[in-house]
Every structure is written in C-alpha cells, then in structure tokens.
Amino acid sequence: MKIQADTVVAIDYTLRDDAGKVIDTSEGHDPLYYLHGHQNIVEGLESALAGKSVGDSVDVVVPPEKGYGTRDEKLVFDIPKEQLPKDLSPQIGMRLSMNGEHGQVIPVTITKVKLNTVQLDGNHELADKALHFSVSIKAVRKATKDELSHGHAHGADGHHHH
C-alpha cells in the first residue's frame, strides 16, 4: 500500500540540523505513527513521503517555510512577572505554555528575565531552520473511522492521547 491521504504511516526517523547534529530521532524508541494528510507532521516531510511504500527510505531537506516556519518578531513580547504562576522562578530557556485568545495552547520560551517583566518568545525553536530528515517507512495501513474522526493515528496498540 502506498502512502496517501487517510493512511496511517509508521516511520523511523532522524532529524538533523544544517551542521549534521541530531535534533530528534525515533532510534531506540517505537516508530512514529501519523495520519497522512492531516497535518500531523511538518508539511515538507509529509509531501516527501506521499506515494512511498513500506521499506522505502527517504532523505529530505525541508526548508523553514515547509517546516516550523520563519521567525516572527511579533511573537516576542514582555509580560509582567505577576502574570507568571506564583511558585515559578523564571529562568532563561524555560519553556511555558500560554493560552491564546481562542483557547489554543501556545508554547513559549523565556528569553530574558528583567526586574519586573520577562520576555517570552512564541516562535518554534526550529523556526528559520532547514530540517534534514532521514526516514525509513515501517508500516502503511488504512486509517480507522476513529482515527479519521480524531484527526490522528492511534499507533500500533490502540488509542493514546499524549
């Protein structure tokens, strides 16, 4: 079976940066399961996998526009320290989650700690970066009705929300 919309795909992958440094890998873990055509993985990788089959290997360089986007300075802003949880001691590099105006969760990173404010950056840590993927396709199957209605794969052993 070929990878196409509404198939569940299991991949082993390694993601490297331009310098060849490993950013993320499934090595030593279970394969990553995703539902093809439902934006479960970055657009550039998803399109590179379309039409492939079990046993195929794919090496692809995904540009920022088809990966985690380009940096947006509008996503860097200061908030008063009082808006942070009372028990939080803010540190540079600390990752937090904020709620957006439509209830969505927005991951942010503390980039500066000032006297009365902290600077937060809502850009993805891989924004502006080319993504070098090495992928091996382990399984391809039709998605179940549950998976299609939920918009994501449920993996080898059933339904898990992380």
Structural descriptors:
2 helices, 8% helix, five-stranded antiparallel sheet, 162 residues, four-stranded antiparallel sheet, mainly beta
Give me the secondary-structure topology.
Elements: E1 7-16, E2 22-25, E3 32-35, H1 43-49, E4 57-62, E5 76-80, E6 95-99, E7 105-113, E8 117-121, E9 131-142, H2 145-150
Antiparallel strand pairs: 1-2, 1-3, 1-9, 4-9, 5-8, 6-7, 7-8
Structural summary, described in words:
The structure is a single chain. This protein is mainly beta and 162 residues long. Helices cover 8% and strands 37% of the residues. The protein is built from 2 helices and 9 strands; from the N terminus they run E-E-E-H-E-E-E-E-E-E-H. Strands 1, 2, 3, 4 and 9 form a 5-stranded antiparallel β-sheet that branches. A 4-stranded antiparallel β-sheet has the order 5-8-7-6, with no helix packed on it. It is elongated, with a radius of gyration of 19 Å.
Mean pLDDT: 93
Based on DSSP secondary structure assignment, what is the total number of beta strands?
Answer: 9
Over all CA atoms, what is the radius of gyration? 19 Å
- How is the biggest beta sheet arranged? 5 strands, antiparallel
What is the number of helices?
A: 2
Helix content: under 10%
Which geometry do the CA atoms define?
elongated
Percent in strands? 35-45%
As residue ranges, the low-confidence spans are: none
Sketch the topology as an H/E string, one letter per element: EEEHEEEEEEH
Helix-strand makeup class? mainly beta
Q: Kindly report how far apart the N and C termini lie.
A: 28 Å
